[in-house]
Amino acid sequence: MYPDDGRIPHVPFGFNHRRWLEFKAQILPGDKIVAFESSPESWEHLAGSAGYILVRDGKVVAQIITLMN
């Protein structure tokens, strides 16, 4: 848990809020938001990531990374 010292805004995605708003602004009707997480091996090698992708017509058009190691 993070301390509530005012450094992280109380908004969705905290310090990543601006990126979330940019991601969200790209969403069109029919798009899908899909959560992703890299393989367990990538986490073991300190190269893991997780977040959300925006899929349109079967293609990734945007992403937001919410966790990295």
Mean pLDDT: 90
Number of helical segments with 4 or more residues: 2
Terminal Cα span: 17 Å
Q: How many strand units?
A: 3
Task: Based on Cα principal axes, name the global outline.
Answer: flat
Query: In what range is the share of β-strand residues?
Result: 25-35%
Task: Tag the structure with descriptive keywords.
flat, 20% helix, three-stranded antiparallel beta sheet, 69 residues
Structure description:
It is a single chain. The chain is built from 2 helices and 3 strands; from the N terminus they run H-E-H-E-E. The protein is of the alpha+beta class and about 70 residues long. Strands 1-2-3 form a 3-stranded antiparallel β-sheet, with helices on one face. The chain is flat.
Structure described in brief:
The protein is of the alpha+beta class and 69 residues long. It is 20% helix and 35% strand.
Ordered list of secondary-structure elements with their pairings:
Layout lengths: L16 H9 L6 E6 L2 H5 L4 E8 L2 E10 L1
